[in-house]
Specification:
Low-confidence stretches: 159-170
Shape: globular
Oligomer: single chain
Largest sheet: 2 strands, antiparallel
Mean pLDDT: 83
Helix content: over 70%
Number of helices: 9
Number of strands: 2
Strand order of the largest sheet: 1-2
Length: 274
């Protein structure tokens, strides 16, 4: 079984879904509960006697939920081999009649696309609960926020900055750069989740923070006016280049993660999977 086979991969993916179903449902339920905090924060003044609800405050809660979603998508990479912590679990995975690439790809899709879908489904459930609560409480303005949530995630490239005078700038390059950084950050957590056997999240987060501080120090040392650079449309080429660089490093991280997975041993008492 040296070649990739799509039918065999589909079977591995279905097996992985069955094995992860309970964890995914628990994750979605917990995330739905987390979304409810900012949502009910918007509703709380009305329940305390306020006559009018602030629609802009509701949108701020949607924006906060979007940030929570993106953070979860990034750190979910550390869960890629969460079910291979014991010797028995490793033997089960190693004995699957499939190639290492097929096994790895099934897990990679689970912590990327699977987590994305589960996170969106969790938001839909949370928004439905908010609407139900509004109906029970007799709130006049209810509004479904799912389209706003999806727009902020996938379609909103209108980036605004508040200065002495608010200057909105349609900087697609900045959006591309942010997307590249998100993909790179997620790949870093996947690499950390593959390479490390313990404290994957903590160790990878420390590395991420150190790299972010180093990057900020370089920007500060170069005396770059970040706000002016972002609002200047002429800088889009540089942002596209940086975004592409982040994505290239992300691909390298995924490749390294796959190489580490291939070298995983059934018996390993070290902190790293090498």
């Amino acid at each position: 079984m040296s070649n990739f086979d799509i039918k065999r991969f589909a079977k591995v993916a279905r097996w992985q879904c069955r094995m992860s179903l309970k964890s995914v449902l628990s994750f979605a339920a917990g995330l739905s509960f987390g979304y409810l905090f900012p949502m009910f924060g918007w509703l709380y003044p009305y329940l305390k006697g306020a006559e009018v609800l602030d629609e802009s405050r509701l949108m701020r809660s949607v924006e906060l939920c979007t940030v929570v979603y993106l953070v979860v998508i990034i750190i979910a990479g550390t869960w890629i081999f969460a079910d291979m912590g014991t010797k028995a679990q490793r033997i089960k995975v190693k004995m699957l009649p499939a190639t290492d690439l097929e096994k790895y790809l099934a897990r990679w899709l689970g912590v990327t696309l699977g987590t994305m879908v589960a996170g969106i489904a969790a938001y839909c459930v949370a928004d439905a609960l908010r609407i139900l609560t509004c109906l029970v409480a007799g709130v006049d303005y209810i509004g479904c926020t799912i389209p706003d949530f999806l727009r902020l995630l996938f379609a909103d490239t209108e980036i605004g900055f508040t200065t002495a005078s608010t200057v909105p700038a349609k900087a697609h390059g900045v959006y591309f750069l942010a997307t590249g950084w998100l993909i790179w950050a997620q790949s870093l957590y996947i690499l950390g989740g593959t390479l490390l056997r313990r404290y994957q999240f903590v160790a990878t987060t420390v590395v991420h923070i150190v790299l972010f501080i180093a990057f900020a120090a370089v920007i500060s040392g170069a005396r770059v006016d970040v706000e002016q650079a972002v609002t200047n449309i002429d800088n889009n080429t540089a942002f596209y280049a940086l975004g592409t660089l982040f994505m290239a490093v992300a691909v390298a991280n995924w490749w390294l993660s796959y190489r580490v997975f291939r070298r995983m041993q059934v018996v390993n008492n070290k902190w790293i999977n090498l």
